[in-house]
Design goal:
MFS_dom; 84% helix; Atg22-like; globular; membrane; MFS transporter; transmembrane transporter activity; single chain; Growth Hormone, Chain: A; 17 helices; 0% strand; mainly alpha
């Protein structure tokens, strides 16, 4: 039976996903791409605004990819993962709120604020993931990891529902029009993110270090530690192979998430239907992620990931042939069934394959691969579409990522990896 204090730490940790998922739903997947094209790039060719949005996402992801291992190593040295999470959260909150005041036509400012918000979102997730090991007993890591993702779906979905209602009926909220409603939605995300981050900051306790080196010393030591980690990752062959598998299949997951709306628009579906589909994904994802957390315990974590990847392959194939909006709704529900499960179980499986004292640093590599996949996947699909002229062929190309990740995951010897890590932690 977990202590009351530990239970509070678990719920405080999980609520951070409730907090920052509002950014992923309302801003990243929902309103920002539309507002960026229609308001901040008003009068510009559609292709140009799409390129600018893609470039912004790519640069932000690249910065996180390159910086994540180093900042993770520094946080390990300082023993201040919560402090680092607070810094990135503050950046994300402030930049998200600032979107409400950027005027039409100023795409550069919008891109800068959004890019910095993405860095805040992604950077905070690095330290959020790293704290999992300190609040979750090993036997419960699947369940607690899944709880975080499930609350993220529920919280993000609830605020997104309110934000959508604001844009559909702005007069109910005393707002002038849909544009003002979107700007208020950006502010609501910033407030939501800040308020629901407080339980983690107050209730989650991490063990500190015996000494508190200066920031300069930590940077130097962190850089050296990073170089050492590049060698040590190779000394953890099971974790290394898993990271390769994760790189490929999460690339496919990220591509589906980021390109679904664009793909639906290319098929001629109305934007209102696509937004409704996003909402379906959120609310299906809440119970489904909890179910996958239980499946990890019943059938084994890797087998549950296999199941999720198999469903993703079927979804991708069906998506290539769909022609009606109702099919898009069903596919959105299908994505909701497996998206949170594959993310939560991947995180918990990786946590089992790494030494405790290197959690922030190695989760830096984990997040680095995830953010790089968010760049590589859309690029693959976009290149295929450009070469073939068919978005349907482009979506089929994503299968390559799932198949490769599935095969690499089958090469991971989990039992050997857990035994290796146990010996390292004891020594």
């Amino acid at each position: 039976m977990a202590s009351h204090s530990n239970q509070r730490g678990i719920y405080g940790w999980a609520l951070y996903d409730w907090a920052n998922s509002a950014f992923a739903t309302t801003v990243m997947a929902g309103f920002f791409p539309v507002f960026f094209k229609q308001v901040w790039n008003a009068g510009e060719p559609a292709a140009l605004s799409t390129f600018r949005l893609g470039l912004t996402n790519s640069l932000a992801s690249l910065i996180v990819m390159l910086a994540a291992p180093l900042i993770g190593a520094v946080a390990d040295q300082l023993g201040r993962r919560k402090g680092a999470l607070l810094i990135f959260t503050a950046l994300g909150v402030l930049m998200t709120g600032s979107l409400a005041w950027i005027q039409a036509g100023h795409w550069e400012l919008a891109a800068l604020a959004y890019g910095l918000a993405v860095i805040g979102f992604s950077g905070s997730n690095l330290f959020y993931d790293a704290l999992l090991i300190y609040i979750a007993p090993l036997r419960d890591v699947d369940r607690i990891s899944s709880l975080g993702f499930a609350l993220g779906y529920l919280g993000g979905g609830l605020l997104f529902s309110l934000n959508l209602l604001m844009t559909w009926q702005p007069e109910w909220f005393g707002l002038a029009d849909r544009g003002e409603a979107v700007r208020v939605a950006f502010i609501s995300v910033a407030v939501w993110w800040a308020v629901f981050s407080l339980p983690l900051l107050l209730w989650v306790h991490e063990p500190g270090t015996d000494t508190r080196p200066s920031l300069r010393t930590s940077l130097v030591t962190g850089w050296r530690q990073l170089l050492t980690t590049l060698r040590e990752v190779r000394a953890l062959p099971e974790a290394f192979i898993f990271l390769l598998a994760y790189w490929f299949y999460i690339d496919g997951v990220g591509t589906i998430i980021r390109m679904a709306v664009d793909y639906g628009l290319s098929l001629g579906f109305p934007d209102t239907s696509l937004v409704t589909a996003l909402l379906i994904t959120q609310f299906v994802g809440f119970p489904a992620t909890l179910v996958f957390g239980r499946l990890g315990g019943l059938m084994g974590t890797r087998n549950a990931i296999y199941l999720a990847l198999g469903l993703y392959m079927l979804i991708t194939l069906w998506g290539a042939f769909m022609s009606a909006v109702w099919e898009f709704y069903l596919l959105a529900a299908g994505v909701g069934l497996v998206q949170g499960g594959v993310q939560a179980l991947s995180r918990s499986l990786f946590a089992r394959l790494i030494p405790l004292h290197q959690s922030a640093e190695l989760f830096g590599f984990y997040n680095m691969l995830g953010k790089f996949a968010a760049v590589l996947g859309p690029l693959l699909m976009g290149t295929v579409v450009l070469a073939t002229g068919s978005p349907r062929v482009g979506i089929v190309s994503v299968l390559l990522l799932f198949v490769t990740g599935f095969w690499l995951l089958s090469r991971v010897d989990i039992e050997r990896g857990e035994a290796r890590v146990a010996r390292i932690d004891v020594s």
